[in-house]
């Protein structure tokens, strides 16, 4: 029996005035400037680049503190000033993925006529529903400012006793190039209030939260342009009476979305690769270490050839966790490789690979 789908609100969005659109565009660009300076400022300061921002607090003196390691994601925090509070913490998750800027931009394609909610939920499993309310600047992937719009999203709470949250926010996507030639892409989210998106607590039970200068930044790595440095910044106010430990759980859940994104990008890349020829397959008997985890396979362990790259690994279908030490010791790019059939099923039909 199929589960009953919730009835989502149908928004009535009258046209915005030219002055209001101009105001939204300015606010979106300013938020994106601050996101880049705040979350990925090291990349810009190391190349001598400058961003147009009026906020001095996002320029210098940011001392990020290491918080924890969530699988391949390094979590850091910094204390910043707030208008209503003495100080609040701004978090970021840092990781890497093998891919190109164009591949990442495809994931955030905005199609007003045919929105891809299935893909959005794969990249962010805590998303319940999302709708673009206004298209301020239509999606144009060839431009530096790719897209500006106003979006509403409902987010699942990590605990049953805590109500789900919803957000009404500006979304801006931007391409940029650093002075050293490295390319980047940013997707910034910043809360906004509009009449066509009223509070939905009474009608749907959502508590309206706020997010400021949040989003995700992709920059080509200095060591290898085929690898992207990822920084996801989170600065949210959940509103309501939410215990600190619940808020921390929600933060981890949001940052772990990076693992879902990396998994999807890796699976899609491998699925698009051609099969290795028989002459390209490494001889299993002559290989002593696993190509993925760089550990000794062992004398009596079975060896398997990846049908995509031809390398030898010690596991057939199971995912292999790559340690930080293995990543540092390898000179070639390391990629999580799956047997092709399992990967293709996962990409096309959303099946999990355990």
From TrEMBL:
<keyword id="KW-0808">Transferase</keyword>
<dbReference type="Pfam" id="PF01852">
    <property type="entry name" value="START"/>
</dbReference>
<protein>
    <submittedName>
        <fullName>Phosphatidylinositol kinase (PIK-L1)</fullName>
    </submittedName>
</protein>
<dbReference type="InterPro" id="IPR002913">
    <property type="entry name" value="START_lipid-bd_dom"/>
</dbReference>
<keyword id="KW-0812">Transmembrane</keyword>
<keyword id="KW-0418">Kinase</keyword>
<keyword id="KW-0472">Membrane</keyword>
<keyword id="KW-1133">Transmembrane helix</keyword>
<dbReference type="InterPro" id="IPR052727">
    <property type="entry name" value="Rab4/Rab5_effector"/>
</dbReference>
<dbReference type="GO" id="GO:0008289">
    <property type="term" value="F:lipid binding"/>
</dbReference>
<feature type="domain" description="START">
    <location>
        <begin position="161"/>
        <end position="251"/>
    </location>
</feature>
<feature type="transmembrane region" description="Helical">
    <location>
        <begin position="336"/>
        <end position="353"/>
    </location>
</feature>
<dbReference type="GO" id="GO:0016301">
    <property type="term" value="F:kinase activity"/>
</dbReference>
<dbReference type="InterPro" id="IPR023393">
    <property type="entry name" value="START-like_dom_sf"/>
</dbReference>
């Amino acid at each position: 029996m199929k589960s009953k789908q919730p009835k989502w609100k149908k928004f009535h969005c009258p046209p915005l005035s030219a002055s209001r659109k101009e105001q939204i565009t300015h606010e979106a660009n300013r938020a994106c400037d601050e996101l880049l300076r705040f979350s990925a400022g090291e990349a810009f300061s190391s190349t001598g680049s400058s961003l147009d921002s009026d906020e001095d607090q996002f320029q210098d003196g940011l001392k990020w503190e290491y918080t924890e390691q969530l699988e391949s994601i390094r979590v850091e925090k910094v204390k910043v000033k707030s208008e209503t509070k003495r100080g609040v913490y701004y978090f970021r998750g840092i990781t890497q993925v093998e891919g190109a800027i164009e591949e990442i931009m495809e994931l955030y394609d905005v199609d007003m006529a045919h929105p891809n909610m299935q893909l959005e939920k794969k990249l962010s499993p805590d998303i319940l529903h999302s709708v673009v309310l206004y298209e301020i600047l239509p999606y144009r992937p060839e431009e530096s400012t790719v897209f500006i719009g106003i979006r509403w999203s409902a987010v699942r709470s990590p605990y049953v006793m805590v109500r789900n949250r919803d957000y009404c926010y500006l979304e801006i996507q931007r391409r940029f190039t650093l002075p050293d030639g490295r390319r980047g892409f940013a997707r910034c989210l910043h809360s906004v209030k509009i009449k066509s998106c009223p509070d939905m607590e009474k009608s749907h039970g959502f508590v309206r939260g706020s997010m400021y200068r949040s989003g995700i930044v992709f920059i080509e790595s200095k060591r290898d342009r085929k690898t992207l440095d990822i920084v996801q910044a989170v600065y949210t106010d959940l509103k309501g009476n939410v215990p600190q430990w619940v808020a921390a759980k929600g933060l981890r859940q949001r940052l772990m979305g990076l693992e879902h994104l990396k998994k999807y990008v890796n699976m899609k890349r491998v699925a698009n690769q051609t099969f290795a020829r028989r002459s390209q397959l490494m001889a299993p008997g002559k290989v002593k270490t696993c190509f993925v985890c760089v550990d000794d396979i062992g004398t009596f362990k079975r060896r398997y050839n990846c049908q995509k790259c031809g390398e030898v690994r010690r596991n057939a279908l199971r995912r292999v966790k790559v340690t930080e030490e293995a990543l540092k010791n390898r000179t070639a790019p390391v990629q999580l490789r799956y047997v092709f059939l399992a990967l293709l099923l996962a990409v096309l039909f959303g099946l999990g690979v355990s």
